[in-house]
Write a structure and sequence with these properties.
The chain has 2 domains: 162 residues, Trna Endonuclease, Chain: A, domain 1 (3-Layer(aba) Sandwich); 132 residues, Alpha-Beta Plaits. 31% of the residues lie in helices and 28% in strands. It contains 8 helices and 11 strands. The strands form 3 sheets. A 5-stranded mixed beta sheet has the order 3-4-5-6-7. It is globular and about 65 Å long.
């Protein structure tokens, strides 16, 4: 393991993942390796996450009571942009995942989210056991808490994907889509902008209503996205990208969606909008750019609220803005 460092730092683990040599077994119930240095499952999971471009730290110390320095350790803490994976690995040859392990992970992830409100935190329970269809209840409980269960079959599929892809970025897109996270670009694409134009961009996160309450069209992400596009028609706002993931809740199947919105305006239109918001004797305190950011954000939220099939009061909070930016040239 790597040596400890201050909690406010996020060093990259530099251990050699090849210290363990994978040995495929004939078992249909779990994956296994020859443990040369121990911790093979952590090492293999970390190798997968680092291949996707994530910074990782093994055995990360998390202090939950500063006065007494009480703490616990997470097997792997991985980070990319504002996405953080809270990973616990269990090398089990049996199929059963105990509820104690489950609720310990959920509780620790919940506490970590409170202390890191600006991060998207996903808990991942990794086990070498396969065929977790027998543990569907455990899987569903994790999904309802924004967590995931990766079994031996999942790990093997990720290993195979690493070989099949043409680039690491392709693998990163595949992995982050599995996590329900839209890759954050460092910049908004400005290639199509003309001089004096401005592009506004924001990312929002929301949930569908349960499938059993969805009436009319087929319950799918396409139906919701198409209805959202219909609501946006005539607003000048378009959907540049989106990502989704179906999951099971206590009320049945739902869809978790991330949507990127964008709008392009000329400098002249931007000033017209600013003037339209000014009264006879008062001008907005915000600049034209700032005022448009506020209006653009409100318009995107308004469009979501008018879209059929969206849950307006999901417990984890709808309309969480993941990013908002303006670019111009």
């Amino acid at each position: 393991m790597n040596s400890e460092s201050p909690d406010d730092e996020f060093p990259t683990y530099t251990g050699n993942a090849d210290n363990t040599v994978e040995v495929r077994t004939d078992s249909d119930t779990h994956i296994g390796v020859e443990k040369k240095s121990g911790g093979w499952l952590e090492s293999e999971t970390e190798r997968i996450l680092r291949f996707a471009g994530m910074k990782t730290q093994r055995e990360r110390k998390i202090v939950f009571e500063e006065s007494t320095n009480e703490h616990y350790r997470v097997d792997i803490l991985a980070q990319y942009d504002n996405l953080t994976l809270f990973v616990e690995c269990k090398d089990y040859s049996e199929l059963k995942v105990t509820e104690k392990i489950l609720f310990t992970l959920i509780g620790q992830v919940h506490d970590y989210r409170i202390d890191h409100p600006d991060e998207t935190v996903v808990g991942v329970l990794v086990t070498s056991a396969k065929n977790v269809g027998q543990n569907m209840g455990i899987q569903n409980k994790l999904q309802r808490e924004g967590c995931q269960l990766w079994d031996g079959t999942t790990i093997q599929k990720l290993q195979e994907k690493m070989i099949d892809v043409d680039s690491k970025s392709e693998f990163a897109s595949y992995l982050f889509e599995k996590l329900g996270y839209v890759l954050q670009s460092d910049d908004v694409d400005n290639d199509t902008l003309m001089p004096g134009q401005h592009r506004f961009h924001c990312r929002m996160h929301f949930f569908s209503i349960p499938a059993v309450k969805y009436i009319g069209n087929k319950f799918s992400h396409k139906s919701i996205i198409n209805d959202l596009k219909r609501v946006l028609d005539g607003t000048g706002i378009s959907i540049s990208s989106f990502s989704y993931k179906n999951f099971n809740s206590s009320e049945g199947e739902r869809i978790n969606l991330y949507v990127d919105f964008q709008k392009t305006l000329t400098e002249e239109k931007l000033k017209e909008y600013w003037k339209s918001k000014s009264g006879l004797f008062r001008k907005p305190k915000e600049s034209p750019m700032e005022l448009m950011e506020i209006g653009f954000e409100s318009a995107c939220i308004g469009a979501i609220t008018k879209t059929y099939g969206v849950e307006y009061s999901h417990p984890t909070g709808a309309y969480q803005i993941r990013s908002i930016a303006t670019r111009s040239q």
